[in-house]
Design brief:
Shape: globular
CATH architecture: 2-Layer Sandwich
Bound molecules: adenosine-3',5'-cyclic-monophosphate
Radius of gyration: 14 Å
Largest sheet: 4 strands, antiparallel
Helix content: 25-40%
Number of helices: 7
Strand order of the largest sheet: 2-3-1-4
CATH superfamily: Nucleoside diphosphate kinase-like domain
Order of helices and strands: EHHEHHEHHEH
Distance between the termini: 14 Å
Number of domains: 1
CATH class: Alpha Beta
Number of strands: 4
Strand content: 15-25%
Structural class: alpha+beta
């Protein structure tokens, strides 16, 4: 499988605080090409489906409430070794544990309101990208 695609969402806390531009700038500076992007708002059904894997977790309801609380920016990013490279750029899930200079260290509030999502595998990058951009041409050939 190709490993040059990852999927991201700038989450409601970061959108509400006006960090879209600053975060996109970091993504560009790190050498990612934005191949699809949209500002959108997830419904409860969409968020529940997207985070189905966390259904049994104690934080699931709060996660869905939070992810549907405001707009998000969804995007597909391209770069060699995209998943691993992007996870380095965004830092640990918990911003308190994130390295200096990472997007979560700079812009996230907490483990639940953690500013940005990045796919955790090449397989999920494709699944998550298709979830938000089902008609995009890159998946049609
Ligand atoms: P992300 O990795 O983008 O997708 C799953 C999200 O669940 C994660 O970001 C966090 O926002 C949230 N999450 C993961 N672990 C916890 C936790 N222990 N408590 C609260 N939220 C969490």
């Amino acid at each position: 499988m190709e490993n040059n695609i990852t999927f991201t969402m700038i989450k409601p806390d970061a959108v509400n605080k006006g960090y879209i531009g600053a975060i996109l700038n970091q993504i560009n500076n790190a050498g990612f090409e934005i191949i699809a992007m949209k500002l959108t708002k997830l419904s409860k059904e969409e968020a529940s489906k997207f985070y189905q894997i966390h259904e049994e977790k104690p934080f699931f309801n709060d996660l869905i409430k939070y992810m549907t609380s405001g707009c998000i920016v969804a995007a597909i990013l391209k770069k060699d070794n995209a998943v691993e490279s992007f996870r380095k750029l965004i830092g640990s899930t918990n911003p308190a544990e994130a390295d200096e200079g990472t997007i979560r260290k700079l812009y996230a509030e907490s483990i639940s309101a953690n500013a940005i999502h990045g796919s955790d595998s090449d397989e999920n990058a494709i699944v998550e990208s298709k979830f938000h951009f089902e008609d995009i041409e890159i998946f049609n050939h």
